[in-house]
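Hi! If you just cloned this repository, the fastest way to understand the data is to look at a raw example. We've pasted two of them here, unedited. The first protein comes first, obviously.
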Amino acid sequence: MESLPPREEAAGPAGEASEEPESGSRRWGAQHAGARELAELYSPGKRLQEWISVILCFSLICFNFYNLLFYLRLEHTPSIIVGIFAGVITADFLSGLFHWGADTWGSVELPIVGKAFIRPFREHHIDPTAITRHDFIETNGDNCFMTLVPLANMAYKFVSFSPEALYETCPWECYVFALIIFITMTNQIHKWSHTYFGLPRWVIFLQDWHVILPRKHHRIHHVSPHETYFCITTGWLNYPLEKIRFWRCLENMIQGLTGEKPRADDMKWAQKIK
């Protein structure tokens, strides 16, 4: 069993209570004023971008997977196993880095990226269960968008490189493919970590064995002020990164250089009452 930092002790009833705002005039969840305003910013243009991203992403995944299978050889097995494991670890770290960046810095008012990519993070801290009401497209559209360039690059290699070159680079492409798959699925895994009813048994099994992000593990992040346990693919890196104070050191460096206060915009939305 993993050793958890003292803050997880607050992840039970007391910890969950600490997620609530101190003021009795504010309601947490879908009825929170900030949550309602943020939900209304979800636009038809954003929905179209998500649909296009999902369609292109899964089309490229199928194309690349077929070609990977064609070039796989038995002698690649050890390298492929290492590559897949490294891909999962890398995806977990990148999920934490992106999650930390969007939670901690920036504003919904930023041009383009504010409403499109930062808005969902602000909404999620005010209304953590909103993600469970999102359909497959809204849940996974942004992650699919982020993987389009590496997927397209991989597809280009399959149609332009020689068979000999593809054979040599197959273990590397397996690493990249595993990384892409887990990045693509990160927000779906995140959604499952907030879902307490109706999950398939195989998902619960993977959560219980910590193959993917467990529900209890992720509750640590949702204890206000949401300053730790940012990795949301498997969560394997959360404890070691917390032990070395990785996120806190980054925040101190950035605050010292820019004067910006971590999570200022996140707190602003949490405190909205009308």
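Ok, and the second one:
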Amino acid sequence: MADKFKMSNGQHGMLRGQAPDAFQKVDPSMPKRSCHDTDFERMPVKPQKTHANSTGFTSQVADIATTGIMEQALVDRLNTTMQKGMEDGYNARLEEEDEDRHISQEELDRQEDSKNIDDDDLEVLRARRRQQMKDAHDKKLKYQALGHGSYDDIEEEAFLKTVTSSERAVVHFHHKMFEKCKVMDMHLGKCARKFFGTRFVRLDAEKAPFFVEKLKIRTLPCVVVFNDGVAVGRQVGFEGLSMGDEFETVQLAWRIKEWGGLEEDFGPEDDIQWV
């Protein structure tokens, strides 16, 4: 079988002058590869025209095949990278949500009684529960220092400090002679005691002309909701509250929550126990 073939001596055909060094070691008579070949000269040779009348179809097909393979490889790599990124992002979000999930004492007790959890996982839950309790205590102390939990009168000079010190603040611009303002005071007092995450105050509109003008307050009572010192919503009179003067506190609380003024979770139909 070997008699049918003869090793090229590097002097004839397309590959003349490009014999591998390994072949030269076998047959020293073969010419050495030029040490002056450029990178371009070392590139693989594409199919060439075999005669003058050739259409170059073979070369064109080779180009298309090479380009198609490269493009498909890039697409496959991109798809793999995107899929990996989506999976990593999803897993990271699950881990973050799991870390933020509140661990109740009831859940911890149930896990301690369960036989389907090992000691390491149980200790992680205990540590997370301790940290959550510490964070809640620290937050409560911070809120107490800012006056949360009470419904107080403030002067115009304290207005900016009040609405910027707390993440959420509700200010009732009132008039001491308006009966509807007194009704609003009653409901806001309940909200202040129930929703500890928000600072509730009231400001005499007659004694705060600067902010009344800046906030374009024209009708009283007017309850303005602030997030980090920025007004995000307002309750003008009893607008949007059913039953007029007889509206329920939860209705007002829900409107304040829709503007981002309350931290606690509840629904507009919840039967809340007011203090």
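That's it. A detail worth noticing about the second one: The CA atoms of residues 208 and 214 lie 10 Å apart.
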